[in-house]
Amino acid sequence: MAGNREFFNRRLHSLFGVIPIGIFLIVHLTINYQATKGAEAYNAAAGLMEKIPFLLAVETLVIYIPILFHAIYGVYISFTARPNNIRFSTFRNWMFLLQRITGVFLIIFIAWHVWETRIAKALGAEVNFDMMANIVDNPAMLAFYIVGIVSATFHLSNGLWSFFVSWGITVSPRSQRVLTTVTLLIFVAVTFIGVRAILAFAV
Amino acid sequence: MAEQKTVKFIIERQDTPDSTPYQETFEIPYRPNMNVISALMEIQRNPVTADGKKTSPVAWEMNCLEEVCGACSMVINGKPRQACSTMVDKLEHPIRLAPMRTFPVVRDLVIDRSRMFDSLKKVKAWIPIDGTYDLGPGPRMPENKRQWAYELSKCMTCGVCLEACPNVNANSNFMGPAPLSQVRLFNSHPTGAMNKAERLNAIMGDGGLANCGNSQNCVQACPKGIPLTTSIAALNREATVQMFRDFFGSDYSY
């Protein structure tokens, strides 16, 4: 495997983005969506997740390690690029740049979000509907969360497109074009779930 | 007599590989059907800037003058392309020329494309047919496949796809789309396929295939219309299979 590090790391980075991080994001936003049915429905759904056996081990294996690897290696990838969108103003080139911008922003957003919720919980706070309602009571924080959620759904949808190309599933230009449409629909659907959920905490 | 029509060129110049670039403006007489090379030849004949200062002639590279050698690639009005096939009448004026700075600049518009030739050696972009005795003819190639492969063989190592790629720069060692597509070409040749795994392993190493960020600028910029992004995606599939063969073991991974 020596000398093959870069190839292995890039493929692992691509895989982690979809499995497990992408799946986790969809599960996370879907549970949040319960908030649209009231505080009790949300607390019940969130409480269910906390009942997962060996929670800390599962969190570490499925969330923390993949996300840390994806984030750190992703920053390295982002800063080895030299964007040239003024000279080459094509759709895919803008997606390329946005994927890197949202990725770097997501590190800031997720670090803040984990500090406010998961680390707060470890320090004794209770994670429930009221906790989130208090956070997004501040309009600036609500805006920060909305930008964070849309960045995450974009990064997932566009990353899914790249995943299919990077693993050699979509080879022909036609299949890649169809996949653009499919991932766009995924983006719209997941963004709707995520944004509607965060707005439910704000009212 | 009516005043002579002129064409204005703003050229980014550089005297040595390490010196600071500077700009010079030239105004040359217009002739019908000029291309950028013929304009550069005019400047070479009479190296005087637009404000009358005598200067050194602008240096550039050229060879075939019919867009098959790739030597005269430069950035013309912001886009990397060949100076020989770029017609003055079809450009916005004044015309701005600059070297492709993804490569080391030798002088003025002359660049050093060695890194591409080194990459071709690294990925073994050839078909080894030498033996200690006459190996005889290789397997036949179906005609429709030959026609398909001909499109990939049009690559002239001009460097335009590397200049267009945001991931080819001083911060990365990515070899760029051109040598990758050559791996697809030689791997699809019936005799070349005998060394398929060797080439795949070369592009699965550092600076290889995995560095592609899918901005897909290369396929837009390629002057020969080579389906570079299709080549990269096809190689991604081959590399996925090769990766599993290498790890789990396979009789087909030679």
TrEMBL record, chain A:
Pfam families: Sdh_cyt. CDD domains: SQR_TypeB_1_TM. The lineage of its organism: Bacteria, Bacillati, Bacillota, Bacilli, Bacillales. The chain crosses the membrane at residues 12-34, 54-76, 97-115, 142-166, 178-202. The keyword Chloroplast does not apply. The keyword Transmembrane helix applies. Keywords: Heme, Iron, Membrane, Metal-binding, Transmembrane, Transmembrane helix. It is found in: Membrane. It comes from the Bacteria. This is Succinate dehydrogenase. It comes from Pallidibacillus pasinlerensis.
From TrEMBL, chain B:
Gene3D superfamilies: 3.10.20.30, Alpha-helical ferredoxin. Residues 146-177 form the 4Fe-4S ferredoxin-type domain. Belongs to the succinate dehydrogenase/fumarate reductase iron-sulfur protein family. Its cofactor is [4Fe-4S] cluster; [2Fe-2S] cluster; [3Fe-4S] cluster. Keywords: 2Fe-2S, 3Fe-4S, 4Fe-4S, Iron, Iron-sulfur, Metal-binding, Oxidoreductase, Tricarboxylic acid cycle. This is succinate dehydrogenase. Pfam families: Fer2_3, Fer4_8. Its EC number is 1.3.5.1. The lineage of its organism: Bacteria, Bacillati, Bacillota, Bacilli, Bacillales.
